[in-house]
Amino acid sequence: MKSKLISYSLILLAIIAFSCNGEDGADGIDGVDGVDGINGTDGPDNGLGIIILSGDITNDEAATSLTENLGKNTHTISISGTTNLTAIDLSEISTLAVLEVNGNENLQTLSLPDLETTFDNVQIFGNPKLENIDLPILETTLGNFAIGNNELLVSINFPRLTSAQRISFSSQPILQNLSLPLAAQIEVLNITNNESLVQIDLPNLRKLLGLSLSNNEMIQSFSLPLLESTTGKNENSFTIGNNQNLQSVDFGNLDEVGGVSISSNPRLALFSMNNLVTANGTIRITNNVLLTNATFSSLKSAASIDITRNDALTSINFDEIEIINLVIQISDNNMLEDLSFPLLTSIGTENRFSFRIWNNDLITSIAFPNLENLGNNISKTIDIRSDGLEILDFNELTTVSTFSVRSNGTLTSVALSSIQNFSSLRFPRMSTPVIDNLVSTLINITPSITDTSISLVGTASTQALTDIETLRSNGNTVTLRD
Hints:
The chain is mainly beta. The chain has helices at 2-19, 59-69, 432-443, 462-473, and strands at 50-54, 76-80, 87-89, 95-102, 109-111, 117-125, 132-134, 140-148, 155-157, 163-170, 177-179, 185-192, 199-201, 207-214, 221-223, 237-241, 248-250, 256-257, 259-263, 270-272, 278-286, 293-295, 301-308, 315-317, 323-331, 338-340, 346-347, 354-358, 365-367, 381-385, 391-393, 399-406, 413-415, 421-429, 453-457, 477-481. The strands form six sheets. It has a 21-stranded parallel β-sheet that branches. Strands 3-5-7-9 form a four-stranded parallel β-sheet.
């Protein structure tokens, strides 16, 4: 490139010389003593926009190519599919839009000592002998920044990184430590499939919108102690799953997320997000076999709640939640004894509603004492199945399509005093006072109900039997089995 520039400069110099009047020009006009660059020898070379290193290029050849072609215009560097390259030093470049370092058979060290900012896409993937990635003054990454499938990688050095948009560390089988000591803001962080990773250090992270921490077999704790509230509607999720030795998680003061999924972490015993106020997606806690307690003591609203198959779970806390927009499902938690949502007033929307509490056979009490609204969906079914159930409290509920309860036990208390509109009520065995009270509630609905189906099990009093006949006379199907 420089030879072409020199030729062009010589032609330009000849034209200038031909047009001169023969007298000595002022310094700089004759192209010799002037400002650097006019004589074509000492002038700046701004480099190529795109540099590609590939094939059987050697270290020396790569260094020569970079010396000749790297400059201020360089925005994209691709180092891919090389067979002889063992080390690459990309000095004197402070910004890049695209960096691709992929599939280099013998590359061991990647150094970008002057890189401060990346703007679009960085990929460092599938370099089987790469041991070190050193970016000592990188401060900001915009777009994607992904490191993965580098089998011998032992060191990632980002000591000054403060801000990242989307950053990913995945499938690094011998990487043990990951530290971003100054990172304060990351939009989305993925740490997945790193089987030897034992420590993650993010001591100054304050803003994080989305997280995936999954399939890291050796990690025992994950803490973001300074994590703060988010601003605006956050639709990203926090996912922690399949971390075989994870025992503790700390999300600091985070008060809003898109959703939360905590699943298949077999050694996780306690989980809390006590500062979380809003979940714009689903709260999902599933398949954590040692989890005994899950607490969301400040949560006010969530799109959905799914608590399933946690064999040791004895308690959950959603004491402040008022709105669930779509679905509540709490199923197959074998040790859960009581279930209460004391302030919940609304579940469901016009388009979707689901209420399912199944196979939590030690639960004796289910209480939703302020639940009033099940949305405008045509099918509004409350489906409860629990063999140990004794107490039900839905005292403010007025409208439901189907209210179905299945249990091998006997209900000793049912609060359903506000019910007005329904298609079907199905209850298991109830004590005589409970049957009498429920039938009395139904017979006193104004205007009188008709075209409903009511199924009861137990012994009714004489007055309740009389009221049941009245309900039948009004066009309702009432079944009473002893």
